[in-house]
Amino acid sequence: MALTFTPFPDLGNACPEFKLPATDGKTYSLKDFPTGHPLVVMFICNHCPYVQAIEDRLIQLGQDLKKQNVSVVAICSNDAKSHPEDSFENLKKRAEEKSYPFVYLYDESQEVAHKFGAVCTPDFFVYDKNHKLAYRGRLDDSWKDASKVTKRELYEAVQTLIKDQKVSEEQTASMGCSIKWI
After folding, report:
1. Considering the entire predicted model, what is its pTM?
2. Residue 127 pLDDT more than 60?
3. Which of 3, 20, 111, 119 is exposed most, by the fewest CB atoms within 10 A?
4. Tens of pLDDT along 146-166?
5. What domain of life does the native source organism fall in (predicted)?
6. What is the per-residue pLDDT for 85?
7. Is residue 37 over pLDDT 60?
8. Is the bond into 122 cis (omega within 30 degrees of 0)?
């Protein structure tokens, strides 16, 4: 497990186009998430201990944002040959077991991860109502222990965008396992 931190974000960049299969049997592209509301894209996987530690908080985030018409999209781009836990079949099982309130996409070719510049799991991208990057930081201030969270940074960034305000450029990088490249 190689600990990786996200780089400083290129704020203002447009959300990259994508078209990927989802665990719900559908295929989604960027056009399925219309402008007018913020969009959260997170690169996660099944096997990463960093993702596992925050999984329940990701589910809560998805539930909270769904009520506010904010789309949350998860993408797994890990090589399933080296990490079978991250195979499409296992992603489907996990999403169903945990009742993920967000779309879970499979990026088998890893092309989408490269387009986004994703480097680790978890890696979070929050886009404003025009699908311009506004936040690329961590979920909250305590990845390891949910009881010690005092600030839900990603959630707060989305709330700022909902109010049509600019998110602070002072953002703390997310950290996690490096994406398992082919």
Report:
1. 0.97
2. yes
3. 3
4. 999 999 999 999 999 999 999
5. Bacteria
6. 98
7. yes
8. yes
Which residues make Cβ contacts (< 8 Å) with residue 60, sequence separation at least 6?
none
The full length of the chain comes to 182
- In the structure encoding, which two tokens stand for residue 179, read together? 């994406």
Is the pLDDT at 41 greater than 90? The verdict is yes
The residue assigned the tokens 């991208």 is 125
Tell me the pLDDT of the chain averaged across its residues: 97
User: 3-state SS of the chain: helix, strand, coil percent to 5?
Assistant: 30, 25, 50
Residue type, 175: M
DSSP letters for 125-155: EEE-TTSBEEE---SSS-SS-GGG----HHH
Structural domains in the chain plus CATH codes: 35-178 (3.40.30.10)
First to last CA, the chain: 16
Tokens of 35: 């402008």
Distance CA 117, CA 120 (A): 10
**1 has pLDDT over 60:** no
